[in-house]
Amino acid sequence: MRSSRISRLVVANIRRSRNHFMLASIGIVVGIATFSFFIALAQGVRAVVLGKIFPLDQLEVVPKSLDVAVGPLALGTSTFGGDVIDDAKVTQLAAIPGVAIVYPKMRLTVPSIVWGGEALLGANLRSELVADGINPALVQADVGSGLEFRDFDDPSDPANSAPERCRTDADCGEHRWCGPPAATRRTRRNDGDDTGVIPRGTPMVCRHYVPILVSENIVELYNGGLRRAHALPKLVPDSVLGLTFNLVIGASMVEASNKGYLIEEKAMLVGFSRKAISLGLTMPVGYIQRFNVDFGSPDDAQRYHSAIVMVPEKDDVAAVAKGVADLGLEVADTGAEQAALLIAIFTLIFALVSGVIVGIAAVNIMHVFFMLVYERQHEIGIMRAVGASRGDILRIILGEAALLGAMAGVVGVAIAFGSSLVFDWISANYVPDFPYKPETYFVFPWWLVASALGFAVGFCILGALLPARRAARMEPAAVLSGH
Amino acid sequence: MLCRMGGSLVWSAPPMIRVRGMRKSYRTGKLSTEVLRGIDLEIETGEFVSIIGPSGSGKSTLLHAVGGLDNDYGGSIEVDGKDLRTLSDRQLSAYRNGNVGFVFQSFYLLPHLTLIENVSLPAVFDRGDQALADGPLLDRAHEVLRLVDLEDRAQSKPTMLSGGQRQRVAIARALFNRPKLLLGDEPTGNLDSKLGAQVIELFRKLNHDSGITVLIVTHDPRVSQITDRTLRVEDGRLFEGASPASGATAPEGEADGTSSPAEIAAKPVELEEAGA
Ligand SMILES: Nc1ncnc2c1ncn2[C@@H]1O[C@H](COP(=O)(O)OP(=O)(O)OP(=O)(O)O)[C@@H](O)[C@H]1O
Ligand SMILES: [Mg+2]
């Protein structure tokens, strides 16, 4: 009852001095708003960067000192050599505690080209092909409905019936095309050209498109950057499923294969997968094995170039990385660590900046409270006279500071939240798309709100500490008799 | 208390206030001035006493010490059998809260609170077991406002009141926790003579009707005429009576100028009748 009555006095005092307090708390409000805004921004950026761009729950494992382009920012093809990951290594990887599942992947090691997209984009795009292969059984969940991701050209698979003869695509029905049989070698017309001539007498048969999975990164990068440069339409991921395009194996825009022949295939986009190669096409591993063997040696069929290791618990990542190293393999540098470090530094800097603002605000609070204590010395005196102890006076003043801090904190967080909405709105409406552009850049977790309020209250109390002590130590007799 | 009086032993209640050899000096910079140099004083329960003396003689200093506002002095002060010097800040605060009502020259009302809230301020700091609940607190606030004839203004703010009314509110506040001791430090100093007279009449009535012990520091000769006893502070010492001519005395219960031992002895009975 006593404390509730003291609280009522506190509230009445705050109301009375609201103009003073409003001025005094501006610094706290600004500091807390800054703090909440930037920490929420850091959290939001972190969610995008570590959640989508550099997911931490999957590691790409590669042979030691093998430079594989895996991050979306690391462009270009690499040449391969050195160690490889074979089936035994895959089994060992899967046995590391904390590893949920391993997706071995094989790189296409033949210079190749992908081209197409006219139907969708109004112009043909053409690019060096970076591709890898994966066991289709592992990614069935990522395949779009009505589409299939399997090795249609595997002669040993009983599901693949003997190809029917045809004359046009129309003879073959949906999702198939009419062309030469799989692995038909075409004669290169002339050096550097990427089309070849089908040998005379080659029968035309109904073919399945090579099913392709791509990373969502590709759509992000296309929508956010590439399409702007070429003034192309924006793509909604699901609408591009079923898109077909052409692969020319053994051709290159930079260097031609040393073989005198090419293999042309048609491919179809059937889904998006996080296990797909970041910048490139992922197909059932059988196709890659056949292409690599066709242009290389039979051994190439057994060599995986990387493996995606899923680690569901973030806490296990370090231990898994060590297990990977023990196997003579290493975790490909995805940039996640640097990104996390950058975000941490960014967070720290703004926490410091807002700390300085709030600290200066506390000094301001101190001045205002010194002034208030001076102004109210007679009231404090009379409260002492009617029975307030030193502790009561301390509690009253600090109570005012705490309440002031709580209100300033709430206002500060509200301002930060409001600004974040404005910021997101401006970004959505006026900022051109860029890769991974998020709907919101901010995350306000409960602990952020709690610590913002805590800081506001804490710094206000800190600022009021000396004035409150002075008030408590004031001699009521001296004050009340005017000395 | 057992007193030797005219050769026979007489039982009397202990005095409400007993000051023994009280000294007080103030330090300003390096200079220390002794304001009170050995004050001895006894005031019986139910007495109505005025303290006069030249400005700066230390009247307020004495009053504050008796009221527990100041605990830094030499000698001893006992009020109602309690040695104030032995009390901690909390205990002294509880003592002020439960036993003392202060009325000052400047009324010191809290301008942002209503009269009800002002007069019940002592309840805020009441740490006793029988601290009033909200309902009885409101009743008590109305009761003390009625005593000073301001019940109809209960919801007003002090700024709406005249000086005399404000001082009556201050008196009501002083009475709120039913103190044993009502201390006034020039309570009429800021009032014109007519309002001053009303306030003094109120003190007299309170003393008469409920037997509360009243001690008033004043410059106003009319006040000292009304009181049972007048004490005079001069040159750091306390004298009985309104003028130096009436004889200096160390009120050790021996020769007494104005009030006879019989009168003093009669007072406690009055208090019992009032039912405290
Ligand atoms: N807190 C203080 N610090 C320093 N000196 C003080 C203090 N309080 C009182 N004094 C000095 O002590 C002396 C007595 O002061 P006090 O207020 O008790 O006098 P008083 O008799 O009440 O005077 P007045 O009639 O003017 O109110 C004065 O000289 C005053 O200057
Ligand atoms: Mg005085």
Name the descriptors.
heterodimer; A: 483 residues; alpha+beta; seven-stranded mixed β-sheet; six-stranded mixed β-sheet; B: 276 residues; alpha/beta; four-stranded antiparallel β-sheet; 12 strands; 26% strand; binds adenosine-5'-triphosphate; binds magnesium ion
Give the strand order, joined by hyphens, for the main sheet of chain B. Answer: 8-9-10-5-11-12
Point out poorly predicted stretches of chain A.
66-82
Gyration radius from CA atoms of chain B, angstroms = 19 Å
Task: Report the span from N to C terminus of chain A.
Answer: 34 Å
> Which ions, cofactors or small ligands are bound in this entry?
adenosine-5'-triphosphate, magnesium ion
Range of helix content of chain A? 40-55%
Number of strand segments of chain B: 12
Overall geometry of chain A: elongated
Chain pair forming the biggest interface: A-B, 29 and 36 residues
Strand residue content of chain B: 25-35%
Helical fraction of chain B = 25-40%
Write down the oligomeric state: heterodimer
Extended strand count of chain A: 15
Q: What is the structural class of chain A?
A: alpha+beta
Number of helices of chain A: 12
pLDDT < 50 stretches of chain B: 246-276
Beta-strand portion of chain A reads 15-25%
Explain the overall architecture.
The complex is a heterodimer of chains A (483) and B (276). With 483 residues, chain A is of the alpha+beta class. Chain A has twelve helices and 15 strands. With 276 residues, chain B is of the alpha/beta class. Chain B contains nine helices and twelve strands. The two termini of chain B are 20 Å apart. The interface between A and B is medium-sized, with 29 and 36 residues.
Q: Nutshell version of this structure?
A:
The complex is a heterodimer of chains A (483) and B (276). Chain A is of the alpha+beta class and 483 residues long. Chain A is 46% helix and 15% strand.
Task: Annotate the secondary structure layout.
The complex is a heterodimer of chains A (483) and B (276).
Chain A: H1 2-16, H2 18-53, E1 58-63, H3 87-95, E2 101-107, E3 112-116, H4 118-121, E4 125-128, E5 131-134, E6 176-179, E7 186-188, E8 196-197, E9 205-208, E10 210-214, H5 216-230, E11 244-249, E12 261-272, E13 281-284, H6 285-295, E14 306-310, H7 317-326, E15 329-331, H8 336-375, H9 377-385, H10 390-430, H11 446-473, H12 476-480
Chain B: E1 2-5, E2 8-11, E3 17-28, E4 31-43, E5 48-52, H1 59-66, E6 74-79, E7 82-83, H2 89-99, E8 100-104, H3 115-119, H4 121-124, H5 134-147, H6 163-175, E9 181-185, H7 193-210, E10 213-217, H8 221-226, E11 229-234, E12 237-240, H9 261-274
Parallel strand pairs in B: 5-10, 5-11, 8-9, 9-10
Antiparallel strand pairs in B: 1-2, 3-4, 3-6, 6-7, 11-12
Helix pairs in contact in B: 5-6, 6-7
